[in-house]
Amino acid sequence: MAEVAAVGQLGGAATAATLLAALFLAVLFRHQRRRRQRGAPVEGIPAPVDRCAVADGEGIAALDGPTDVIIVGAGVAGSALAYTLGKDGRRVHVIERDLTEPDRIVGELLQPGGYLKLVELGLQDCVDEIDAQRVLGYALFKDGKNTKLSYPLEKFHSDVAGRSFHNGRFIQRMREKAASLPNVQLEQGTVTSLLEENGTVKGVQYKNKSGEELKAHAPLTIVCDGCFSNLRRALCSPKVESPSCFVGLVLENCELPHRNHGHVILANPSPILFYPISSTEVRCLVDVPGQKVPSIASGEMANYLKTVVAPQIPPEIYDSFVAAIDKGSIRTMPNRSMAAAPHPTPGALLMGDAFNMRHPLTGGGMTVALSDIVVLRNLLKPLRNLHDASSLCKYLESFYTLRKPVASTINTLAGALYKVFSASPDKARDEMRQACFDYLSLGGVCSNGPIALLSGLNPRPLSLVAHFFAVAIFGVGRLMLPLPSPKRMWIGARLISGACGIIFPIIKAEGVRQMFFPATVPAYYRAPPEAEF
């Protein structure tokens, strides 16, 4: 009986101890939850990201463990890539020159195809809470006439559309999203060079916010430092062209003729764009051919805008345009194009505008960048680690082929449309321009096909070439009616010749084989190097 009593006492003590332990754990858990809600760090649990720190240009705490990927630049491409790789479990170190909110006049219109890529990456909420505007298509204006081209969105979810916004607000949302992951470190610093050993990139050298010279190492460095990249020369053969400059204005409290549409004015000498960037603001971009623009400081630019550009603006927005000029907030930005010409380098990769640019007329840059990120994510996903640089480099050569259908279609369309939409003293070029406007005005497949290409919803190179030459043949047909004459036949021949002269050099720069026959490129079939990893 004494033994039974002893066992009973032990059992009672054990039960009491268990209850006390459970009570202690419950109190501890509640305490930790309250600390997390207040933003205090809890042992073993990453502290929540201070979004204000990103907005104020502060860095986010260093990573635990060795870095898997260094990303140079936290613009649209860099931020989206950091979030994507971080979500896949990679430890990512992002080094950005300036973490404060950017203030740019381009990168403000995301096509529906780009929005779909944003959804695929889980970043669609980055267009929320920034007063982004839905864009449902374009309106085209020429010589007092206009036609509306709507995106073919019937087969998509109701949320799918283009989005236009302030570029800086969008980028800050992307940075915040990336920084919300505990395995992503955002740091403000300027990368000065790539660290190389025996032809393999091992990391970067950079100056942090305090001016200290530091080194960061990782098995893969991805350079996304934008159109003015100072690192691209080590990783590609850049042939940068600057066909024109954009002159940017913001029109306030202005109602565009076609709501929720971008507006393209086929003006002389080159196109003018209007699109909403908030509920009260409309961005105007005036294309000025060449690399030299009238001086803003001397008033020459304001005079040019009032005397040359304003008379070609639709009357509904004329007053708002002139008021924006008088306000004086005129800015310029060089338009650049650069075909992708990479040097496959072990340990490094180029992305975004540092890698590939096209004329921003069609607003396709962000769509290409986001599409590239989807391709790269899918290639890296099966790899357990990234330490065999030579095998990884050989495997990632497939990236350059797999990206081509989307990238080359958008790039070629941007370059070709800019040349077609620009005025020319050449009668054949002028006929091509008029034919393009009339062809798009026909509606049906004549407008749905090209606008599906432009929107990134149907990025097929063969469809692009078919529509481009359909415009040229349509133009020749117009010249032959009601009766052909030797002069009209000569202009028609020159129109076809001019069309070939516009599109074929762009296709050649993109790569005929990769663009139209990617399946014939050996790298297309490259399998993940599982044996080495």
Structural notes for this entry:
- The structure is a single chain.
- Helices cover 42% and strands 19% of the residues.
- The protein folds into 3 domains: 69-130 and 165-239 and 338-387, FAD/NAD(P)-binding domain; 242-337, Alpha-Beta Plaits, CATH 3.30.70; 405-512.
- The strands form 3 sheets. The protein has a 7-stranded mixed beta sheet with strand order 10-9-8-2-1-11-17.
- Strand 5 (137-142) and strand 6 (145-150) form a beta hairpin.
- The protein has 15 helices and 17 strands.
- The chain is an alpha/beta fold.
- The model is unreliable at 1-52 (pLDDT under 50).
- Keywords: FAD, Flavoprotein, Membrane, Oxidoreductase, Transmembrane, Transmembrane helix.
- Belongs to the squalene monooxygenase family.
- Its main location: membrane.
